[in-house]
Write a structure and sequence with these properties.
With about 300 residues, the chain is an alpha/beta fold. The chain folds into two domains: about 5-180, Rossmann fold; about 190-300, Rossmann fold (3-Layer(aba) Sandwich), CATH 3.40.50.1980. About 40% of the residues lie in helices and about 10% in strands. The chain has ten helices and eight strands. The chain has helices at about 1-10, 30-40, 65-70, 85-95, 145-155, 160-185, 205-210, 225-240, 255-265, 285-300; strands at about 20-25, 45, 75, 105, 195, 210-215, 245, 265-270. The chain has a four-stranded parallel beta sheet, with helices on one face. A four-stranded parallel beta sheet has the order 6-5-7-8, sandwiched between helices. Strand 7, helix 9 and strand 8 form a beta-alpha-beta unit. Helix 2 (about 30-40) crosses helix 5 (about 145-155), helix 5 packs antiparallel against helix 6 and helix 6 packs parallel to helix 10. Bound molecules: zinc ion. The site of zinc ion has 8 residues, from loops. Zinc ion binds near residues 128, 129, 199 and 200.
Length: about 300
């Protein structure tokens, strides 16, 4: 009888979906990377966006609807990061498993402490980041809580493999602990360094490693630079002693290069998502890449 039970279970005849792989759809490659670390061979993971895209402005392809229709889990960042493109896709996918508030729809920001939550909502300050800064995938302190949320979700939806997910979470956390020590040493030269960034993409990295962001190339989040803004930014940056100008790989280089040249700073191209540069293969590599690029630029 026991053998018959095992056979039926192996064939997926007793528990249905529990023995099929969980279909996981992530909005960003960073969340997909964490889902793969935790889910291993028990999950099939697809990221809707590529690491070279701007996560605020994703080209929503019709194929996304089909992918979302098949999903058991949807991992999104939240905090308005995907507000411009994800909600209509979720509605059109007609999949009750991933509708807002369904057990399979996970908003990672809900389990994290976000930076820059405005005390009062003023849309004149730009059109995004009203729920706090959503670029928390560049904050190493967020990796463990995100991995924990993902592991808990997988265990709840696929209890037969709960021990497997827990073991992967433990392994991930141990590897992360080592990396955190390594990054602390690597980033030591960045402490107190003044930088300008293109968009408010690097606040979590700066808060973790102690460099100071004193201005942006964008006049407001999501707004392209204007001559008035740049003309005011340059003397301020010069006076502050800005050493580095950080920009995302997907942006036009001309204005940030001009600002860097005008103030005698180095322009550093920094991936903001997994896959944003060839070396940024997972969440930990993304931090590695950024810190190495910044330190190298500072020392050259
Ligand atoms: Zn943003």
């Amino acid at each position: 009888m026991k053998n018959l039970f095992s056979l039926l279970a192996a064939l997926g005849l007793l528990t249905g979906v529990a023995h099929a792989k969980l279909n996981v759809v992530a909005t960003l490659p960073d969340f997909a990377s964490l889902a793969e670390d935790i889910g291993g061979d028990k999950v099939k993971v697809i990221s809707l966006t590529k690491g070279t895209e701007d996560p605020h402005f994703v080209d929503a392809k019709p194929s996304f609807i089909r992918v979302l229709n098949q999903a058991d889990v949807l991992l999104e960042g939240g905090a308005e990061l995907e507000l411009g493109w994800l909600p209509p896709l979720v509605q059109n996918a007609r999949n009750p498993r991933i509708l807002p508030n369904a057990p399979g729809h996970i908003v990672l920001a809900h389990g994290l402490k976000l930076l820059e939550i405005p005390t009062q909502l003023d849309r004149s300050q730009g059109d995004v980041h009203a729920a706090g800064n959503p670029h928390f995938n560049l904050g190493p302190a967020n990796f463990k809580p995100m991995a924990e949320i993902i592991a808990a979700t997988f265990a709840r939806l696929d209890p037969a493999n709960a021990a497997y997910y827990a073991a992967n979470l433990k392994r991930f956390s141990e590897r992360l602990t080592d990396k955190l020590i390594e990054w602390e040493k690597l980033a030591a030269p960045l402490r107190g360094v003044k930088v300008i960034t293109y968009h408010k993409s690097f606040e979590y990295l700066a808060a973790t490693y102690g460099f100071n962001i004193v201005g942006q190339i964008e006049p407001k989040p999501g707004i392209e630079p204007t001559a008035t803004h740049i003309n005011a930014l340059i003397p301020n940056a010069k006076a502050a002693g800005v050493k580095l100008v950080m920009m995302e790989p997907n942006r036009a280089r001309k204005t940030p290069q001009f600002v860097a040249d005008s103030i005698g700073a180095k322009l550093v191209i920094c991936p903001i998502l997994v896959g944003g540069s060839p070396e940024a293969k997972n969440c930990c590599d993304l931090i590695d890449c950024n810190l190495r690029a910044l330190v190298k630029a500072l020392q050259n």
